[in-house]
Amino acid sequence: MALDTANARPGGTGSIAAIHRYPVKSLTAERLERAVLAPGAAMPGDRRFALLRPGAPFDPLAPAWLPKRHCFALVKEERLAQLAARFDAGTGMLTIERDGRPVARGDATSPVGRGLLEQFFQAFLALPPGAKPRLAESADAPFADQDLPLLSILNLASVRDLERVARAPVDPLRFRANLHLDGLPPWAEHGWIDRVLEIGAARLTVIERIGRCAAIDVVPSGSPGAGARDLALPRLLSQAFGHCDMGVFAKVSVGGEIAAGAAVAVQ
Description:
This protein has 267 residues and is of the alpha+beta class.
């Protein structure tokens, strides 16, 4: 029987199990040991780049958020999950990895470097000549699925409860969250709306649950079968728990440094 989420305890104290950012939208995460959060901003470097479809209305001189329909994304291009990205903000170098090995590298902040990376992605996705992707950069308005600069937070206990009903392992990286939390009751995050998470000096205000789409069916890089669809997780969530939500969005209300292993108190 699925856990009754209505009775999950809203408070508690846990810890940060992992910190992630996604330098390129739809590629697998880059793990961080620590990050400095700024009020009203997303995770630094998160979704800074995206692969835009031909004709996407993007002005590099005035970067702005775009809906994901303008991007090559996991919903349609699940093969992208085979790739992970590493970005060095100091040099502008973007390294693309497959199975832990570099397969492409270029200065993503320069036209020449972007061109080299675009050629790689066009070949990797087997796109025709007229469908070359455009590697776009937007540091201040990340290419997240929502137009607000938020952090996504995943409760690992909820993932384990989903594994229980799926009767199969579920890699938390499927959910593409910035923070993985542990040591909390399963589904407790559904009681956190309008509550504050204290992490050292930082304060995160939870604003809503994250509804999930078919992108979470795609196996992420580093797992067997990466880039394939397997578990039909939105349907399983709906059948077992009566919703398609996994994780919550939060805004940074007070900035500060966070680190893996840090305590998280729910107020």
